[in-house]
Inverse folding.
């Protein structure tokens, strides 16, 4: 039976996955935030999604190498052309997710990379100086000769999945498995389908595998105190891993206390910086404009790493030539962006028109979603979106550092030779990642995310100190 047939024809069915079992049903009706589509889920059985602390984590004694083997096998089955669960998700997501279907298809085709052997092993190597601590107790000693052991113990985690990237759950599933966690994934209303599709694929390999038994995926409306007031307790979970907007993060914060920690990938904004060398020729302007367009349009500017402000160092006439070229490049179809994004909101469009009439800014492009470039002397007060780029004139790139803060995620710089002189100041101001312009959506495998190595923060670092008290121990020696 198709999942589309399990509820009323005008309502999409979103089943749950609970510790190896698919749970069907449409008892609870919801509405997606972005597109307003109705979908239905089963009722949440809280006792089923909470693993008692009296039970050891299913993955505790499974070797990391075996977990990686299982994830790699899963990745081979996530090929879109051969995976009916992902294929069905495409149909469902067209009703709930604002990304164009073609972009979602490209994200799904990239999905197996998140569980490739190279990606998984690189993640472990970069996050843990002693990966063997994931597999058992590792002996250690201090300068006084005291002996002990340490283990990266599996956590119990709730993952609040992001709604702006349907394939992002695959990375979260892989991370949860690598740290041997007991995982509960809260799916977003814009995509209450993909996570279950991936977990179903895993279960078809081996429904009794400890990785499968460590995974549950359900949906509830964010802020539902009847659910969160119970689940967000330290007797049930150690970590809440939150991807989401400011309201979602603030909602989680009120539940925090001793024993439960928040690992937050909270909302970020990204920028670009362009030096005067860019304007040496028409060709160099064209190259910079194309690179800036690539960084601006990722997921139609819904991604945190998508650039929203470009700080340009140069003469006004040169910068205006760049703006005109950038507006042209924003209007293209790309692998992770569409030629036509949703149009600007009425409020933002009116604000742009008023400021333009007052002579405070110049505009290229339009409000219809094909892209707009706004040139100003100071950053605009609103949040550029829907393929809108605010180009800000600066005398020197160093002057742009004052606009960087702890919410600045990615900073693309052109030409790349300018990075070295800027990166320490950008980091001190709060910036979290520096890259070449045009590569915001590319990453050096295993690098930090939001200025941290997340897997190292997920695990519970447990110490077993075996100190022998006596005169030979200088800590306890008599005076």
């Amino acid at each position: 039976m198709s999942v589309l047939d399990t509820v009323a024809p005008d309502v999409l069915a979103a089943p749950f996955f609970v510790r190896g079992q698919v749970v069907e049903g449409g008892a609870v009706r919801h509405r997606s935030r972005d597109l307003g589509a109705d979908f239905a889920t089963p009722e949440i059985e809280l006792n089923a999604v909470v693993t008692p602390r009296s039970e050891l984590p299913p993955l505790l004694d499974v070797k990391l190498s075996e977990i990686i083997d299982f994830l790699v096998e899963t990745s081979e089955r996530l090929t879109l052309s051969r995976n009916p669960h992902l294929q069905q998700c495409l149909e469902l997501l067209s009703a709930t997710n604002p990304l164009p279907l073609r972009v979602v298809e490209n994200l799904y085709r990239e999905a197996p990379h998140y569980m490739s052997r190279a990606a998984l092993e690189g993640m472990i190597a970069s996050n843990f100086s002693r990966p063997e601590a994931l597999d058992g107790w590792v002996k250690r000693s201090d300068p006084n000769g005291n002996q002990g052991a340490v283990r990266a113990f599996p956590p119990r985690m709730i993952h609040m999945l992001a709604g702006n990237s349907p394939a992002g759950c695959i990375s979260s599933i892989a991370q949860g498995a690598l740290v041997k966690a007991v995982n509960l994934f809260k799916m977003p209303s814009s995509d209450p389908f993909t996570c279950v599709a991936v977990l179903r694929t895993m279960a078809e390999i081996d429904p009794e595998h400890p990785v499968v038994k460590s995974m549950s995926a359900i949906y509830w409306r964010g802020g539902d105190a009847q659910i969160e007031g119970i689940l967000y307790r330290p007797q049930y979970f150690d970590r809440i891993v939150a991807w989401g907007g400011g309201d979602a993060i603030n909602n989680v914060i009120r539940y925090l206390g001793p024993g439960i920690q928040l690992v937050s990938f909270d909302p970020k904004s990204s920028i670009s910086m362009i030096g005067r060398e860019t304007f040496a020729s028409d060709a160099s302007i064209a190259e910079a404009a194309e690179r800036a367009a690539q960084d601006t349009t990722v997921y139609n500017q819904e991604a945190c790493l998508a650039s929203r402000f470009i700080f340009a160092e140069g003469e006004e006439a040169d910068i205006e030539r760049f703006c005109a070229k950038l507006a042209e490049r924003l209007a293209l179809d790309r692998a992770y962006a569409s030629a036509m994004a949703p149009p600007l909101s009425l409020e933002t469009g009116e604000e742009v028109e008023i400021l333009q009439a007052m002579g405070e800014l110049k505009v290229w492009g339009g409000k219809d979603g094909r892209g707009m470039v706004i040139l100003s002397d100071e950053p605009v007060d609103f949040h550029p979106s829907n393929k809108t780029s605010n180009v800000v004139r600066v005398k020197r790139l160093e002057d742009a550092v004052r606009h960087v803060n702890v919410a600045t995620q990615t900073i693309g710089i052109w030409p790349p030779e300018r990075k070295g002189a800027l990166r320490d100041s950008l980091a001190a101001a709060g910036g979290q990642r520096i890259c070449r312009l045009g590569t915001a959506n590319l990453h050096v495998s295993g690098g930090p995310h939001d200025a941290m190595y997340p897997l190292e923060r997920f695990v519970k670092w447990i110490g077993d100190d075996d100190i022998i008290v006596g005169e030979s121990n200088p800590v306890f020696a008599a005076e």
